[in-house]
Amino acid sequence: MTATLHPLGTPAPTRPAPVGIGWRHAHYTTLLEQRPDLDFIEVHSENFFASGGAALAVLREGRQHYPVSLHGVGLSLGSARGLDEDHLAQLAALVRTIDPVRVSDHASFARGALVTGQPVHAADLLPVPSTHAALDAMCANVQRTQEALGRRIAVENLSAYLRWREAEMDEPEFLNHLARRTGCGLLVDVNNIFVNARNAALRGETDDPLRMAQDWLDGITTGSVDEIHLAGHAFLGDIVIDDHGSRVCDAVWALYRHAVRRFGPVPTLIEWDTDVPSLAVLLDEAQRAREASGQALQAMPAGADA
Hints:
The protein has helices spanning 28-34, 54-65, 85-98, 132-149, 171-182, 190-202, 209-218, 250-263, 279-298; strands at 19-22, 40-44, 68-71, 102-106, 109-113, 119-126, 154-156, 185-189, 225-230, 234-236, 239-241, 268-270. The protein is an alpha/beta fold. Helix 3 links the parallel strand 3 (68-71) and strand 4 (102-106). The longest helix is centred in the C-terminal third of the chain and has 20 residues, at 279-298. The protein is globular, with a radius of gyration of 19 Å.
């Protein structure tokens, strides 16, 4: 096959995106025994904060065979109270132990305070308002995290079921400012984007959620995306939720191909956290991601940047 050339003569990328899966407890033993063809594995950071024990021993063994991406849910990067320094110290210790290929968390908050000043922690990822004040707080927390870890982190867009009335910019603009001011990367969760667009459609705010999601992707600055997440979603009552409990749907695959054409062959993760299937199902989804990214790259016009 003749390689497509960029204007400066550099061959356009033809290799598919590196693909990994979320490594969950149900597949600890099977993955280590089978050692399937994966480019990386990803785990939730907080599950391995203990300084020793069986969980960390398993992760160390997995690290011998695969690059590991650490994906957190507890930094509360959007908290106006700042970071939990104990949590950050535990994450830094895990980073030193595992030497991950990437570290990420969410553009959300979970920490707050009662009127008495007593700190409280929500058991959820809560959205931040798209305001300059919220952006300042998140930038400070991201910079503090990167200083403590000695490396760049990636920040993930959120699937949110509550909205703030205050908004001084849209979400892509907020994330672009965050990346530009802190030097952090972005973790683009394609499923989250589509979940939010489908919920917007249910509220009567759009009649084309796929187009709305594509416009979101087009609003993100190219070159800032470090990782992409793919997952399944489901209806719960009168909303769509990001439950990570099923195969990736056709619309999200279409959005993924759009993302690859825009951002290039970015490392891509298959997330599956509820009703976890056999490892073979996850590997099949990973193969679909490789094929989809390869198709998207081959379809890029001559001279297009990836």
